[in-house]
Amino acid sequence: MEKQNEVVSFERLYKPKNVLIYKISPKTAFFVQGFLRQGYNLENLYLVSTREDEFLGIKCYRTIDDIPIDSFDLLILSVRRDILINNIIEILSKKKIVFIHIFTAGTGEFDEEGVNIERSIKEILEKTPGTRSIGPNCMGLYCPQGKIAYYSSFPTESGDIALIFQSGDLHSKMVKISSRRHNLRFSKCISIGNCIDIQISELLEYLNHDIETNIVCVYFEGLPALYRNEGKRLLQVLKSMNKLVLFMRGGRTMRGQKAVLTHTGSLASRDVIWKAIFNQTPTIEVPPSINELIDYTYLFSNYIQRFKHLNRTVKYPIRKNALVVLWSGGFGILATDVLTKLGFNMPLFEGKKLEKLKEIYPIKIGSLANPLDLPWLTSDEVYLKICIAAIDDNIDFVMLVSDAWSDLEGDRFKNYYKNLLGIKAHVESLDKTLVIILSDYPSESRQKFYAMLNNDGFILFPSIERAAKSFLKLTEYGKKRNMTL
Amino acid sequence: MEKQNEVVSFERLYKPKNVLIYKISPKTAFFVQGFLRQGYNLENLYLVSTREDEFLGIKCYRTIDDIPIDSFDLLILSVRRDILINNIIEILSKKKIVFIHIFTAGTGEFDEEGVNIERSIKEILEKTPGTRSIGPNCMGLYCPQGKIAYYSSFPTESGDIALIFQSGDLHSKMVKISSRRHNLRFSKCISIGNCIDIQISELLEYLNHDIETNIVCVYFEGLPALYRNEGKRLLQVLKSMNKLVLFMRGGRTMRGQKAVLTHTGSLASRDVIWKAIFNQTPTIEVPPSINELIDYTYLFSNYIQRFKHLNRTVKYPIRKNALVVLWSGGFGILATDVLTKLGFNMPLFEGKKLEKLKEIYPIKIGSLANPLDLPWLTSDEVYLKICIAAIDDNIDFVMLVSDAWSDLEGDRFKNYYKNLLGIKAHVESLDKTLVIILSDYPSESRQKFYAMLNNDGFILFPSIERAAKSFLKLTEYGKKRNMTL
Lengths: 485, 485
Fold this sequence. Notes:
- By secondary structure, chain A is α/β, with parallel strands linked by helices.
- Chain A has helices at residues 11-14, 29-38, 84-94, 112-126, 168-182, 200-208, 230-240, 254-261, 271-280, 290-309, 329-341, 351-360, 381-390, 411-429, 444-455, 464-481, and strands at 19-22, 45-48, 54-55, 58-61, 71-77, 96-102, 132-134, 140-142, 158-165, 186-191, 215-220, 244-249, 284-286, 322-326, 367-368, 372-373, 397-402, 433-438, 459-461.
- Chain A is elongated.
- Chain A starts with 10 loop residues before the first helix and ends with a helix.
């Protein structure tokens, strides 16, 4: 029998009023460090340790019996697998637990004995209707508004991106890399593990109605062997989603599926079925690359935020008219090759429009074509004027190729930056998308320039290709939603 | 009539004994700054300026007549295009010039009048057998051993990589990004422009016998309209190359070819012909992406250097047996998907070998498969032991996925780093290739760790995909050369 969806809201999973960690050890110190960093009320954090009296300044209890209160929203369970079942039985007999995060790894993904352990836990949970569980084999929760995180390196500010990941490490990488690379911020994130109780479909359903969330990223490895209806359910939920779902599957190749079996122990799913699911639902498929997932999330997040800030319904592009602005013939040719292969149009300026551009800038070198090649002009007012005249409703996507500047204090740079801000304002006033292409290499001044652009809300990509592939996802979603510009 | 190859060695182009810049202006200050940075003997640098008496501390002459010496190895010509022809005639009538770098842009790539200017210059040069020219429309030369560069940001140390680029900006990007990202260093680099005299084929022929060069990277846009035999010649030279040539073509799509016409004004070349050329020659084709060119150059350069340092003939892999070492099931699954799609084998450990691995590490979590998933072990001696036992002649390519460490001083990190050095020594003793996969995001500690690894000769890539695609190029070259491991 599959367990019925409980009335208990997942809100208490992400924002637990109190938490019990059983048991804490130096190896899992990161849990406590995460709570400390997020500013969780430590009066509501209870630790059990068989060895320590105090851990990072927090009192430890020796046994479950010493804990003075009777019920917990969240229990983080980190014990050896051979005592896992007994510990669950014991704790549940003594305390009321709403959610259990089973951190313990080496169960269903590891061997037959582990599969049996999972089956037993499932049975125990089925007999305890008020208790739900995530895991085993997962890192658990990150919710800045709930002041809960499992790593101290995660940002304390919240955002509108939710994660449901069947890999703790990818979950951590997603938060860590995207927050540092692009200032991305998150609402409700979960590393869900082997899914012996709470399923991805349930969390999706919940997040679909969560006002804090606009985007849900899923990393999926497979359907749990113990829940035969989850596939059907997942399809139904994906169909009903009114929020953007970016869905990345691991184990897409046969060899990859072999790897899945040693990871979350899920049944591998076939590519052809998934193609059909992606065709039937508004879900956006993401290739097996954490960088692509970050790229797409980043662009979507920025795009959606722009409309939300103006209190407008988000509308997506479907056309692919791109303009490249740069100072380099060679780079422009490579860009043209890449964009053409990806299916972009690169409209040329003609007739009156071209006349106007020539009037603004009677060029002697460079080109008033597309790419718009404007050498020696970037700090000049005419640069902004040309861009404003060139970018109109016929252009959907502007990629401006910038160099890193070594001198960020001089007038030349300041004038250039003013031009960039002017171009951004113009592009956004047309509801179009501007990205800055800035090559990636270790350099202090580049990093400063990058941070400056980041903080001023510019969208940044290290290559034309990555920017363009991300924009294609906007148009893909636009077509699926049919809510287009 | 095409010009005969002159006896004058290109050595004097890259290492000119004296240089005349005609004329210097604030806009082209970077030329002088490049010479200053490289430590060129300023007694041999002559400047002509109609306005300044001194430029960056160097005396300026008012006219060509004021210059006290009669012959120059290199003239850098930077004048308006409408006086270009007259200036060349005047200078050549008064001074002996071995090489002219025509910096002036806006000629053949710009309009019909520009094409005529180029034709006239070609005729003048044909009547002056001792004088050869690069350009117009190019940035010119960078040769650390010749103490010559056109940007002050280029490294002063020399290396074994030569560049021949038909785009000044891509040329600059290649040097700047790859030197900062990977410590790449160069021998003889040239931004060659519209090629009205010296052709790519001539430079390739020269570099093929240049003892300072091991790798030649070419960025090619098209054959010059004025040299009908250059295509045939280029094919012959590419066939005869005994040095690695990494060849990137721009303008491969029809739309890209349109862009070429506004850049170097070259005749666009068809894809099918190029496929045949790449099949018939040992040339390695590079897709239109500066990042891919840098990735490949980086891996090849490291690979070749390793053999050169041991005074051994370079031998390349042809087999594609990869091992991934990591601490993350999810990342391992994505890696497996990517590697399988790229055609790699990921051998599993079996029989005695597996027994041995189990003996070293009786795992409870993680996996002794491939990816080799070793959680909680990275700072432990057993980590090194497992890797040494796992990596044998059956593995060609090892990708070790590392996290950035926040604390680079503690014992845990030091032990980890010792493990990395041990694995590197082991892999290299087998003539195999190890790369470290380190995700890319702004972080001071990550940058320090990256620099540390870079300086210790580790090969670093930001993703499995980029590392794997680069390794494939080694095997492609191995097959072409048939000098394989």
